Amino acid sequence: MEAIYLDHAATTPVHPEVLEEMVDVYQKIFGNPSSIHQFGREARKVIDEARDALGRQIGTEGKNIVFTSGGTEADNMAIIGAALANQEKGKHIITSKIEHHAVLHTCQNLEEQGFEVTYLDVNSNGRLDLNDIQQALRDDTILVTLVYGNNEVGTLQPIREIAHLLRPHQALFHTDAVQAFGTIDIDVREAPIDLLSLTAHKINGPKGAGLLYVREGVPISPYSYGGEQERKRRPGTQNVPGIVGLQKAAEISAESILPRMDTYFAYRKILLNTLEKNDIEYKINGDPDHFLPHILNLYFPGTNVEALLVNLDLAGVAVSSGSACTAGSIEPSHVLTAMYGKESERAKASVRISFGYGLSTEAIQKAAAIIAKTVKRMKQ
Amino acid sequence: MIYLDNSATTKPYPEALETFNIVSNQFFANPSSIHGLGGLSEEMLKRSRTQAAELLGVKPSEITFTSGGTEGNNLAIKGVALSYSQRGKHIITTEIEHAATYNAFKQLENAGFEVTYLPVNHKGRVNLEDLKKACRKDTILISIIHVNNEVGTVQPLQEIGEWLKEQRATLFHVDHVQGIGKVPLNLKEYGIDLCTISGHKFHGPKGTGLLFVRGGVSLSPLFSGGSQELNRRAGTENLPGIAAMVKALRINLETSKRHLDDLKCLKNKMIRSFETNDDLIIHTPAEFSAPHIINVTIKGIKAEVLVHALEEDDIYVSTKSACSSREGGASRVLLAMGIPEDEAAHAIRISLSLENTSDEIDRFLDIFNKKINELKSVMG
């Protein structure tokens, strides 16, 4: 039995066109982009083209793009880099309680180095309150880092409003757009955003490739040292095929944002209708108006998440309890805990369903029936 | 095409690409996901780790997968420095390290560590007695490049390792990026605690590498985030890259077992030819040098001019390290060996791989000699 993969927020299959292009690059353009001969120049040309194309896609120039090994590295580079480069202006950082661990743990790491971090609360929909941000801002705040769209419940933050609120302040604004990129349009000019992280493997691109957007003139200290690649901001031979794969995946996802949105809304409808038809009690974790359409986090009262996941998996449906990076641990989701409180049963009885490439209406119908049946059985 | 810039990067093995392709398609799930598909990826990751460990003669738990040589070196050096700074803040390295380690040390100096840069002799070798003199009670780390990437000098790691075994408080890191598959290194016997290698230098994919960390050595991670790689390296694992790198490692080490002597013959053939030409000054020492790198100055001919002239005939060599080939000036490594600045500025590097053939070298030598004569007549 072929499992139905509904965990696209954890990672996605590589799009065949992306893979094809990458293999082509591996074979033909294997030079080191720093080499001065033709092989090097060719490799440099393809990564610079990718840089420009990716820049255009998020509303900036190629020179403001720093390629990384993925989202975690981009988040670390942004947060630590901004903190260290600006510590003379202050040592206060603002983030939220529902960040991905790549951000949360990096902020905790900075606390150990003498920085002070405010972790903002969210409401029960997972949304931040602009007033809270305003109140948390201090004269010595140097960085505000907030997730664009949450990876567990899909709640979108008022990024544009936050960016405008921060405009008169010295603090830099970083957003982790790893989960949001490719599902919604992102333009760094519109917001305006100083630093933005994204990764390829969440949008049917390769693992091991991501980028950090750094607004022109924004100082960040490099955290790694070596060669002079990426305008001295990120040393190491560039992962040329990975970068090309990232660009191709971004291009494909950009072309299909609207139709995919419709598809995901239809999938949600099928799932929720099936649950209702079967009299399954459920609640949606997240914000009813501001959410990423590919993520649906559901609370099933009276169930146990671990048992539910195992049984769904055996029945051929792959879903998750939260961020894959924490799925190995049995700790209740820090995101759901922040939304509903420590005592809430919700953090221990919710699953994340996430859509993506390669699914069909039939597959969703089948998965919905399996989920309804499994939840019903688990509650008995 | 005759590609003789294998120290910059290598062409991936077709078998490694095939693995990359298969794993991308069949094991796309996140190894941290707890569902069955995630389990398959985790299993594949485990198999790759076990195989890498077997190939290097170490334990699977001692392997940390990274995004490449620069990250591996940074993780090893800064990871040890931060983790053991209570014990001492003195580190020893050499004057001829790759930029990835050299600049990491410069960063540590800014962070309050004291770094001793051991000098090298005219062959590019360090002296054990110098090391003994430099070693202090508060020396926490010695980090040495095994095979220098510009001239190919091999350092006396066995002697150093054996002496170091008696100095229990000092850890030993080796940058083995250029040496792997070319100059055997016994990690256990030489008492090496940490060792960096990079996939794209042995016909694996770019964006991959691994760091050997001997059991019991504690390492402060470079990135904060998920708990991947035994908490040493956060971020979703690049599983297709990892599997392809391990495949390339296996092929490379097997090829090396059978054909290392052939490679030595190729190098000797070139050296013998160069020795008959009075216009050439060979910087690569006759003994204690790797079988794949020759660094040579052509009197009166600018390195860039020759590189481009050879390129006209589809032959690819380089000036110095690719990572620093865009910086102006003479090689830091050659200067450290006491080579006059003018001579160092005229040096080119020819670097072979186990894939090069005797015919290629014959053709290279023909064209090389012809080009030199042409250029000389133009200049003269």
Question: Which key terms come to mind for this protein?
Answer:
heterodimer; A: about 375 residues; alpha/beta; 7-stranded mixed beta sheet; 3-stranded antiparallel beta sheet; about 40% helix; B: alpha/beta; Aspartate Aminotransferase, domain 1; Aspartate Aminotransferase, domain 2; 2 domains; 11 helices; about 15% strand; globular; pyridoxal phosphate (chain A); Aminotrans_V_dom (chain A); transferase (chain A)
Descriptive report:
The complex is a heterodimer of chains A (380) and B (380). The mean pLDDT of chain A is 94. Chain A has helices at residues 16-28, 38-57, 71-85, 101-112, 130-136, 159-166, 240-255, 257-277, 305-314, 324-327, 334-340, 361-379; strands at 4-5, 65-68, 92-96, 116-120, 141-147, 172-176, 195-199, 210-214, 283-285, 295-299, 317-318, 350-354. Chain A has 380 residues and is α/β, with parallel strands linked by helices. Chain A is globular. Chain B is an alpha/beta fold and 380 residues long. Chain B folds into two domains: 2-7 and 259-374, Aspartate Aminotransferase, domain 1, CATH 3.90.1150; 14-251, Type I PLP-dependent aspartate aminotransferase-like (Major domain) (Aspartate Aminotransferase, domain 2, 3-Layer(aba) Sandwich). Chain B is 41% helix and 14% strand. Chain B contains eleven helices and twelve strands. Chain B has a seven-stranded mixed sheet with strand order 2-8-7-6-5-3-4, sandwiched between helices. In chain B, α4 (99-110) links the parallel β3 and β4 (114-118). In chain B, α3 (69-83) packs parallel to α4. The model of chain B has no long low-confidence stretch (mean pLDDT 94). Chains A and B meet through α1, α2, α3, α4 and α7 of A and α1, α2, α3, α4 and α7 of B.
